[in-house]
Amino acid sequence: MTACQLCTAPDAMPVPLSPSGQADLCPTCAGAMTGPVVDAPHWSCLHDAVWSEDAVVQGMAWRVLTRLGAPWANDLMDICDPSPEVRAWAENGAGAEAPDAIIHRDSNGAVLAQGDTVTLIKDLPVKGAGFTAKRGTAVRGISLVPDNAGHIEGRVEGQRIVILTEYVKKV
Ligand SMILES: [Zn+2]
Questions:
Q1: Lower Cβ count inside 10 Å, N or C end of the chain?
Q2: Burial of 79 by CB count in 10 Å (0-12 exposed, 13-18 middle, 19+ buried)?
Q3: How far is the CA of 26 from the centre of ligand 1 (A)?
């Protein structure tokens, strides 16, 4: 018998995961990867799993937590802070009922987060502001435009401008 990677139950089977990867999961945990999740004592296992060093285990735990909606799950999400990659993985596979995850990526495909610092990889004329933001300029504390994965906002020469993610590189 194989132990479930999420809850350590002994009746695990290999399960392919969306959007990537595979894990040994018990039927309850496997169902939670794709179907609805209801609050149950079973999910006390997430208190450990969400801190896992294994990104897939942490991502699976985060996915279940985001879909539980229970106060204790929200409290746990407040104190645990997975990497953007883990969050993106967890949200991307969350199923049709979840909102489409908008993931901002820089010119190299690195995931951008609120507050990151980026540099410009080419000179960008700023329309209406009468200046060109020079290649190599650091833009600190960027904001992600929530409904457009191709746009971020940041301050250049004191002006708040919208920048295309394809023209920036995460520092
Ligand atoms: Zn399990």
A1: N
A2: exposed
A3: 4
**Residue range 8-64, pLDDT digits in tens:** 999 999 999 888 888 999 999 999 998 889 999 999 999 999 999 999 999 999 999
101 Cα to the center of ligand 1, angstroms: 25
Distance 50 CA to ligand 1 centre (A): 13
Residues 44 and 80 in one domain: yes
My answer on whether 74 and 130 are in the same domain is no
Q: Identify the domain containing residue 137 by its residue range.
A: 118-170
Structural domain includes residue 99:
no
Sheet containing strand 138-139, edge to edge, reads 138-139, 118-120, 168-170
- The answer to the question of residue 131 being in a domain is yes
